[in-house]
């Protein structure tokens, strides 16, 4: 892309793509041209499983403000869940694929 | 110029050709029907992928009399929708410059080998494709004209260099071997007008033949009619400048060696 600002993080979970649910393995986070959002650059997150091909992807394209609000909201929700003793750690847990 | 009583026809299809290191990749190819001879164009797709806009652009060049090929620079990333494949390439940090240059060089060879070629070949690209067009014009001998539309990262900071893009294209300017047309938007942030000016200064320093046009009221990608930043008047003028430039440098058949 044009900015080439991208990072990849290993993740665990599930995503629902065009062919149904699949096991997530990576999230690719970039600040670059979106495909659909009406912005020149967007905060793009592709939730993927690279082993299953390019089409195994759940994509979101966010404005800067939306991305920042989302990050704060995720952390806030996790904080509340931790305080309530609800957090489950998935490390080592076999996910249903 | 086209007259309403003229015959017109076009063939457009997917083909394969040899790219970097002789590896086979696919490409979209469109040519006017008839015996020619036709000049050739390599149309280098942008970062969002080998998509519908690029198929349309390929046919547009063919409509204007060019045997035109648009190589799929993302071929090695696998297959899927253009967006999904482009997203995979985006995550990998783009395609390596050497590979892109090699793939375009292969497309140029394909065009020159056609029996109806006039042996002139130009390159065109937008966004990352504009950057690639400039790289090719500098690094591949035999380009006859190059069109860089808002190619970002021609000027690169040291910290932006990567193993895939190890050299800023501006560093190759002394090797530019053909006339260059550059179209840019004054509101673009990649490349910024300051970066375009820096590029222009380097072209002047080396005595290169170029035309740069900076459009007020336009940002990045102002040709893309399906995007927010489309600018009708600037896009119409830009296309006119492109075809006038190509007519000037590609219409006369190359002299055989």
Describe the 3D structure.
The complex is a heterodimer of chains A (97) and B (257). Chain A has one helix at residues 64-83; strands at residues 5-17, 20-32, 42-48, 57-62. Chain A has 97 residues and is of the alpha+beta class. Chain A has one domain (5-83). A four-stranded antiparallel beta sheet of chain A has the order 1-2-3-4. The longest helix of chain A is centred in the last third of the chain and has 20 residues, at 64-83. The termini of chain A are far apart. The mean pLDDT of chain A is 91. The two termini of chain B are 31 Å apart. Chain B is globular, with a radius of gyration of 17 Å. In chain B, helix 3 (97-112) packs across helix 4. Chain B is 32% helix and 22% strand. Chain B has 257 residues and is an alpha/beta fold. Chain B has one domain (10-250): Alpha/Beta hydrolase fold, catalytic domain (Rossmann fold, 3-Layer(aba) Sandwich). The interface between A and B is medium-sized, with 25 and 32 residues.
Could you name the key traits of this structure?
heterodimer, A: 97 residues, alpha+beta, 4-stranded antiparallel β-sheet, B: 257 residues, alpha/beta, Rossmann fold, 8-stranded mixed β-sheet, 6 helices, 8 strands, 32% helix, globular
Briefly say what this structure is.
The complex is a heterodimer of chains A (97) and B (257). Chain A is an alpha+beta fold. Chain A has one helix at residues 64-83; strands at residues 5-17, 20-32, 42-48, 57-62.
CATH homologous superfamily caption of chain B: Alpha/Beta hydrolase fold, catalytic domain
The proportion of residues forming helix of chain A, as a percent range, comes to 10-25%
Task: Give the C-alpha Rg of chain A.
Answer: 15 Å
SSE order of chain B in H/E notation? EEEHEHHEHEEHEH
* SS field, number of helical segments of chain A: 1
Global geometry of chain A: globular
Give the ordered list of helices and strands of chain A: EEEEH
Give unreliable regions of chain A as ranges: none
Q: How many beta-strand elements of chain B? A: 8
- Average pLDDT confidence of chain A is 91
Average of per-residue pLDDT values of chain B: 96
Give the oligomeric state of the chains in this entry, treating copies of one chain as homo and distinct chains as hetero. Answer: heterodimer
Largest sheet of chain A: 4 strands, antiparallel
- Tell me the fraction of residues in β-strands of chain A, as a range: 35-45%
Strand content of chain B: 15-25%
Total number of distinct structural domains of chain A: 1
